[in-house]
Every structure is written in structure tokens, then in C-alpha cells.
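User: Before I run my own analysis I want an independent prediction to cross-check against. Here's the chain; please return only the C-alpha cells and, at the end, one sentence I can use as a sanity check.
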Amino acid sequence: MALADDGGRRRRGDVVPVRQIALAVVSLLVFLAIATAGFKFIEGWSWLDALYMVAISVTTVGYGEVHPLSPEGKAFAILTVFSGVGIGSYVLLTVTRRFFEGVVEGTIQRAVARRRVKTTLPRMKNHTVVAGFGRLGREICHEMRLAGNEVVVVDDKQERVLMAEEAEYLFVQGDASDEKVLEAAGLARAKSLAVATPTDALNTYIVLAAREVNPSVHILARASDEVAAKRMKKAGASDAVSPYQMGGLRMAAMMIRPAVVDFMDVASHGDFPDIFIEQLMMGEKSTLAGTSLRGAQWQSTYKVMVLSAMHPGGKQQFLPDPDEPLEPGCLLIVAGHRSNLDRLAAALKS
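Assistant: C-alpha cells:
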């Protein structure tokens, strides 16, 4: 499940049981009104006697008739009994089923989810902790899940924790600026932390606490502007971004070069079957270490295109020289088919 989508589906899905219960109750009320009016006008009884006759007929308690019935009244009574039993059973089954699904199954699902948190979290490694499960945090979790990364959500608001639970994310409820809460989320074993709460002050405190728990974790923090981003970097964030700035740059790029933006979106998300853009690291034991693109015949062997190479010393080359050796620790941005990228990734590790 994707979170923003998960939450939306949940709210829309909740409407269905409510409508079904409302339809069942309205059907029962309409039936009671019609049946009562039938006895009233067929037999000429009072409204109270007519309603009482309907009640004992529908519930089949067998108290006996209120007044002697005419042939027309008997026929109407037979119709009332059969119709009332059917509608009453429908209402009872609908309400009972929805109660079981909403309360009993919900309780079981929550118990299973919390059990999963207790058993899985202590063993997790190289996962991503997302502090804050608002709109930005949900999008981060969604993209991380699409990329196949495990996520642990940290938030102190009950309703957001429930949303994370419904979306089947592991979660810890608490203040993310508390070191004990971050430790409970496994930050000491995590590979990254996304700080996505809406306030700069809280984000800065979270960054400081996270650095105490795990000095080497990669921290990406949300900042409202460039000044806040600089402060968060000083506090220990690996990087800080402003959603407003990123959104503005994206909107401008879509107006200036929309085809390029569309292509990059499709390629980076892997939705296009013919191409995918991935970052790969040259391993120490790789058989390709020390070779050049031309020497190892990357193009013919792996059928990929190396767009960029970040060397260990910090030197970055776009469309790198095919004759320059690639050393261990070199970070490569590569485009190609998924299967070819997987083969290259295996070669870079071995």
C-alpha cells in the first residue's frame, strides 16, 4: 500500500459499511411504516394497534391478534410476516457483520500489527526512519516502499500512528527528538533518517538527537528556507531541503522543458519498461575495479550507459572518459534495462 493512497482508500472504504448499515435501517423503517399503514387502513385500527400488530408479526412472538382480522387483513398479515422476517434478518446480519469487521477484525489486525512491530523492529538493519507522518512523510514512505526499502515511522500523534499502522508500516509512537524514541525505532542500525515534521525548530532538535544515537547515519531534513537548511546542516544533517524551493524548481522546469521532466520522472521511478536510472557503487572486490569503460567493454557486455561518475576524491564527471579507470568507491549513475542494471550491480559487488 502507498500511504497517501492508503489513507484515502481507507476513508472512502469506510463509507461503504456506513451506507450499508444506513440502507438496512432505512429499509426496516420504511417497511414498518408501510406495514403499520396497511393494518390501519385495511382493518381501520388505531395507529398504536396497527404498529403493535406489525411488531408481534415481525418478531414472531405469537401473542395473538390485536383484533379479529378480515380476509384481506389475514393476507396482509401473511405478507407482513414473511417480509418482516426477511428484512429483519437482513438488518441483523448487516449490522452484526459490520460490527465484526469494524471492531473485532480491527482489534485483531491492530494486535497483529503491534506484535509485528515488537518482533521485527529489534532485528531490522539498514532501514530508513521517517520522523513525521504528515503529507511529506507519507510521500517519503511511499517512495521508499516502491524502491524496496524498509521504513519505520516515528510520530507522536495517535491518528498519524494509526494511519501508518493501517498502511502496514512499522511504527514507534513518540517524540522523535527524544533519543530513547529514536533508539526504539532502530536508528542505531538504520542507514538513513528522513526528518519531515513541519517545524524547523523540531527538525533541528531531531537532527541533534539523531546524531547522538547514530553519528554515521545519513540524515535528510525538511527546512522551510535556505537559512533553516544551513542551521540544520550545522546541527548535523547530511543535507536539508525546502519543499517550497524544490516545488518551485520543478514547476519552473516543467514549464521550460516539460518533456525532460516527464522522461526523468518515468526513468527514475522505473515505470518505463525500457529504461531505469540507478546509482551503483564500485566495490573493493569487484572484478571491474581499476578498469575503464572501454577496457571492460561495458557498453557491449552490460548494455548500459554511464551518465556520471563520482570518484572517491570528490571529482565528478558527467559522461566520463571511457578510457579513465574507475576505482573502488566510485559512485556511478547508470541508465539501462532493469535486468542489465542488476547484472552490472552484481559485477560491481563481486
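Sanity check: The radius of gyration is 32 Å.
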